[in-house]
Every structure is written in structure tokens, then in C-alpha cells.
Write a structure and sequence with these properties.
The chain contains 14 helices and three strands. By secondary structure, the chain is mainly α.
Length: about 350
């Protein structure tokens, strides 16, 4: 089979009954109201994931002539239908991508017919999510946190030296080094990192540089309130005082975003996702996405202090410690992978 496009049907083109139920599910309310929709408190990324997944299902049904616009959304879904959708949609796509689509449609149905929706579909979505394998193995791309920190320091040193020579090119080098250093110490998701803004969620007080991320802005609904690590406090002040002004450009209003990118404007999350892997690929020979820093940090805890593996819940901003065992297992594999590489290097040395 050939990979096919699955454009999601926009919400305003869903069948009227589907739109009405979804709108009711999203209906907000005050603390004393009892008529809040089931999905009223879902965060924006969750909403987008749901609308995309369900939109792909409805669009696929419409294009294949299987859509009954008058049927209740939950009555429209059968095991055979979902099996056929997954069979077609899986071609050329990662397991995680397919699982996300199924989870989106399951959550929409659950919101339209709370609290269960289509129970077997919700269970299927969770099972697929928990067993999905990434399209690219993580272990061969992972790097020890100590090496990441050394790279961060080196980049900031290079950036400052370039600036001392009046070379503006040193500013983005320093910025990228600081971003990598922060990710090594505080492995936030890229969107939260990109959303840091002076005077809003990043404040300077008597104790240092404080960062606050409310639960509404995090993927798992876990707030963050803490300080830039002491080790990076001086480097962050240097960025604010000496580097960031170089990145800004005259004529472009300063909207107080921490990270300044091309043309003196805010550096969006997508640009961070490009710059960080590009930099690590140049120095390590492997690309570390911002999200992979989370695996590196948690696996490092499992390697060095396995008795503290439970702290990964707080380190990564998870609601439960379910992921702890995953990182412990990953650490075991990482150790085996490293030892195997050492054996290969020794064998090559003996042969030469």
C-alpha cells in the first residue's frame, strides 16, 4: 500500500450533530456552575490533538462514502471501521503518530458521550499509546548530561569571544549554548521554553532568576515554580545584559521574549527544534531534539542514582511516576549499549 494523505476535516465542516456535541463538551463555566462540558478544562494542545484525530476519521468516512451525518458519533464507530482506518493510516507513519490519531478520536467520543464514550476505543487508544515505538531509536542518539553541559559551556565561551571581537555572530552561538544548558538542567518541553518572557513568567528577584509556568500551560497540568540553576545564573544575566541586546534589531519592537531569533524577533518553538539538533549534530555527531533532553536527564538519574528514580516525575513534570520504570529500563539498555561500544573500540585498537 502507498501512504495516503489524511487531511483532517475542520470542526466547522463536521456533521451538525457532531459539532453540537463537541461544542457542548467544550462549554466553559464558573466554579459554582454544574453545566461545564466534559472537555472544558482540557488544555489547548489536547484540544488540537483531539480535533485533528477525530477530523481525520470524519474526513476519511466522508471521502469513502461511509459517513452517516445523522448518526450519533458513538454509534457510527465500529471495531471493523476503526481497524480499516488504522490499516490505511498506518502505511508510512510512525506508531506514535497512529496512536495519537486514535487517541484523539477516542477522546472526542468520550467528551461527546461522557464519561465512557466508546469504552473499547479508549482502551485501544491507551494500549496503542503505551506500546508505540518511536520511528527512530532513542538510545543511539542519547548523550550523557555531563557532556551536554560541557558543550553548553564551550558554546557560551565561543560566543563571548566572538562578541569581544565585535562579531555579532557570537550572539546566536551564546544563545544556543545557554538554551542547551538550560535544557540539560531543566528539561522543559520546547513550547514552555519558547514561551519564556521577561516580566511575565521570568522575573528577577533577590534570590535569582525565577521562572513560573502555570499548570494551564503545561502538557500534563503540572505547574513549575523555581529558579534558573545557580550554575547558569551568571550566564543568564550575561545573556540578558550583553547578548540579547545584540540579537535585537532597531525598528523591531521588543516584546520581552527571552529568546530572540532571526531578524530580531521572537524565537519560536520550531526554530528551537531546528537549532538544538543542528548544534548537537555538529559537535556530537547525533541530533538531540529538545524532547530527547528529557530522556537523557531521566536516564542519567536512573544510571547514577537509581534509588532516586522516583524524582523523574518532578523533573519532567509528570502527574504520576509511571514513567520511572521506563527510564530505569532505558538506563539498563544505555549501559549495555555503551559497554558494547567500548568492546568494539578495544577490538579495533587490538587490530590496528
Amino acid at each position: 500500500m502507498i501512504k495516503q494523505a489524511f487531511p483532517p476535516l475542520p470542526v466547522d465542516q463536521w456533521p451538525a450533530r457532531d459539532r453540537s456535541l463537541w461544542q457542548a463538551a467544550r462549554q466553559p463555566s464558573g466554579p459554582f456552575d454544574d453545566d461545564a462540558g466534559f472537555a472544558a478544562r482540557w488544555r489547548s494542545p489536547t484540544m488540537k490533538m483531539c480535533e485533528r484525530g477525530y477530523g481525520m476519521l470524519v474526513g476519511w468516512l466522508d471521502r469513502s462514502g461511509q459517513l452517516d451525518p445523522l448518526a450519533h458519533p458513538c454509534h457510527r464507530v465500529t471495531r471493523d471501521l476503526i481497524r480499516a482506518f488504522i490499516t490505511e493510516y498506518s502505511v508510512g507513519r510512525a506508531e506514535t503518530t497512529v496512536a495519537s490519531a486514535v487517541r484523539g478520536m477516542a477522546y472526542v467520543l468520550r467528551a461527546c458521550a461522557p464519561p465512557d464514550g466508546v469504552d473499547w476505543l479508549t482502551k485501544l487508544a491507551h494500549r496503542m499509546t503505551n506500546t508505540a515505538k518511536p520511528s527512530r531509536p532513542k538510545l543511539p542518539r542519547m548523550v550523557r548530561v555531563a557532556d551536554i553541559i560541557l558543550l553548553s559551556d564551550r558554546l557560551m565561551d565561543i560566543g563571548l569571544e566572538e562578541l569581544r571581537r565585535s562579531r555579532r555572530s557570537g550572539a546566536p552561538i551564546y544563545r544556543d549554548g545557554l538554551i542547551i544548558g538550560l535544557l540539560a538542567h531543566r528539561p522543559w518541553r520546547r513550547r514552555n521554553l519558547a514561551d519564556l518572557r521577561l516580566g511575565h513568567n521570568l522575573l528577577v528577584d533577590d534570590f535569582g532568576i525565577r521562572i513560573t509556568i502555570p499548570r494551564e500551560e503545561t502538557k500534563k497540568g503540572v505547574a513549575f515554580d523555581g529558579y534558573v540553576p545557580e550554575r547558569l545564573k551568571g550566564a543568564t544575566f550575561t545573556y540578558l545584559d550583553r547578548v540579547r541586546p545584540v540579537l535585537l534589531k532597531s525598528g523591531i519592537p521588543d516584546e520581552s521574549w527571552l529568546w530572540i531569533g532571526r531578524q530580531g524577533r521572537r524565537m519560536p518553538a520550531n526554530d528551537i527544534s531546528i537549532r538544538v539538533p543542528k548544534t548537537t549534530r555538529k559537535h556530537f555527531g547525533r541530533d538531540l531534539s529538545p524532547h530527547l533532553f528529557r530522556d537523557c536527564a531521566a536516564t542519567e538519574v536512573a544510571l547514577e542514582r537509581p534509588e532516586l528514580i522516583g524524582m523523574t516525575k518532578h523533573l519532567l513534570g509528570h502527574m504520576t511516576p509511571v514513567s520511572s520504570q521506563k527510564y530505569y529500563n532505558q538506563a539498563t539498555s544505555f549501559t549495555a549499549y555503551s559497554r558494547h561500544a567500548d568492546v568494539i573500540r578495544k577490538l579495533r585498537g587490538e587490530e590496528s
